[in-house]
Design brief:
This protein is of the alpha/beta class. Helix content is about 40%, strand content about 15%. The strands form two sheets. Strands 4-3-2-1-5-6-7-8 form an eight-stranded mixed sheet. It has a six-stranded parallel sheet with strand order 11-10-9-12-13-14, sandwiched between helices. Helix 1 crosses helix 17. About 45% of the residues are buried. InterPro entries: Glyco_trans_1 (IPR001296). This is Glycosyltransferase family 4 protein.
């Protein structure tokens, strides 16, 4: 029997727990110790990826709104240590400045280069990862040191001094993959560890990832089985896959809570009213790697160019090259046919990415596997159609608003892209229907997370 709980069940459980408190009392929130490992490593990137935006959203909401104590946890030469809320607030603000998340879109150099390219200006070079951020121009490890030392030198406190019944929260996988970073939990049985696992893809589809990722994910599952009191997942599909993996190693008793991911305020309907390029274009968002199936889209674009020549739509790959991307990236850069109509744009800030997606004819995401699928929901949030691979996670995240196609059928993708390029009555009707999409925002999402944490 699957040990997963729907958002409705979480809310009911939380309400029932409140009803069972003594008359005249309220449920006491427990302190939270939040792992900062993902944020610290994310500071080495010029701009945040989707997982870093979710991690940053957790940090910001907990620091600003959690009514009990909130600490940040980091590994140090003296072992795992925790740091007070005030210090983490300073580090959070410095990280936002590094990533340029609060600057104007006009300050995003990558976005400006992409817009020039879409408008037909001569492109001397591909936009470089990090042009978006002034902070990104500082040496990476200087940035890392500055982030750690923001607010002055501090050794933090030993985990043995955490308040009783603290909840340890880690949503980033990285810290969970190293048992040495979790060993302190054995000495603090009063502390409940709540972890977020995003998917079980490396164990289900090892052919799509680097072998080291498979080994890392095995450690994630083993450490989750050993230490987790509860697990948060982004979809029921991910929960089912994770449940299967945990059950196989003796962790099937751990409750799983599937909570759909929230969307940042940068992805708002207001972006849909902004100017668009004179040339129709499509956007693919995410790391360039075999799992994302961008190579299939390149074959579609070769056919579009053969059929329409210079009139073919353009394609922007908004993401960084990852494992197995060499072939696709080299093909784009060296092909006379593709180089004028396909662009790799790494390092867009979140506001710039939202503006780019808002102006596109559609977002394309032909992935073979996903745990959630954040870019399609972001696209729908700004009124842009989303053409997606027909997999359970996409169906669950985008619902009736997505356009679903077989990721192995390039003919179907070619037909859909051609249809969406033209400004037809059916396209305008599609945009009107998408305007009814209502994404989950951070306040509502964290209320669900609070239900999980309070329900422990």
């Amino acid at each position: 029997m699957k040990s997963t709980k729907s958002p409705e069940a979480i809310a009911h459980f939380h309400l029932d727990r409140r009803r069972r408190t003594e008359p005249g009392t309220t449920l006491m929130h427990r302190p939270i110790a939040f792992s900062l490992i993902r944020a610290l490593l994310g500071s080495l990137s010029p701009t945040p990826r989707g997982i870093e935006r979710i991690d940053f959203g957790y940090i910001s909401h907990l620091l600003d709104h959690w009514p009990a104590d909130c600490f940040g946890v980091l590994p140090t030469p003296w072992g795992m240590r925790y740091f007070p809320r005030e210090r983490i607030l300073k580090g959070r603000d410095r990280l936002a400045a590094y990533w340029n998340e609060t600057a104007s879109i006009g300050e995003d150099g990558v976005y400006s280069t992409v817009v020039d390219w879409l408008d037909g200006c001569e492109r001397a070079r591909e936009p470089r990862d990090g042009e978006a951020s002034r902070g990104a121009r500082s040496p990476l490890y200087n940035r890392l040191a500055s982030l750690i030392l923001e607010g002055g030198v501090s050794l933090g406190r030993a985990m043995s001094r955490l308040p009783n019944r603290t909840i340890y929260l880690d949503i980033g996988h990285t810290g969970v993959s190293h048992g040495a970073l979790l060993g302190w939990l054995r000495r603090r049985p009063d502390v409940d560890a709540v972890l977020m696992l995003h998917d079980a893809i490396p164990l289900e589809r090892p052919d799509l990832v680097h072998p080291s990722t498979v080994a890392q994910h095995r450690r994630v599952m083993a450490n989750t089985a050993a230490y987790a009191r509860a697990v948060i997942t982004p979809t029921q599909a991910a929960a089912d896959a994770i449940q299967t993996q945990l059950a196989s190693i003796g962790g099937g008793h751990i409750p799983l809570f599937p909570l759909g991911l929230p969307i940042d305020d940068a992805f708002s309907p207001a972006e849909a009213a902004c100017g668009t390029a004179t040339t129709p274009y499509f956007v693919v968002c995410g790391a360039i790697e075999p799992r994302k199936n961008q190579s299939m889209l390149l074959s579609v674009w070769r056919e579009l160019l053969a059929a329409h020549g210079a009139a073919a739509p353009r394609l922007v790959l908004a993401g960084r090259p990852g494992h197995g991307s060499d072939y696709a990236v080299q093909e784009i850069r060296q092909s006379n046919l593709l180089s004028g109509h396909v662009l790799v744009a790494s390092g867009l800030s979140s506001p710039a990415l939202a503006r780019l997606i808002a102006g596109a004819r559609a977002l394309l995401m032909p992935s073979f596997a996903e745990g959630f699928g954040l870019p399609p929901v972001e696209a729908l949030s700004v009124g842009t159609p989303a053409v997606l691979s027909d997999i359970p996670a996409h169906r669950e995240a985008s619902g009736a608003f997505g356009i679903y196609l077989d990721p192995h059928d390039p003919t179907a993708w070619h037909r859909a892209i051609s249809d969406l390029t033209a400004d037809t009555e059916s396209y305008r009707a599609l945009k009107k229907r998408i305007a009814e999409f209502r994404p989950l925002r951070w306040d509502a999402y964290m209320a669900r997370v609070g239900g999980v944490l309070d329900g422990l």
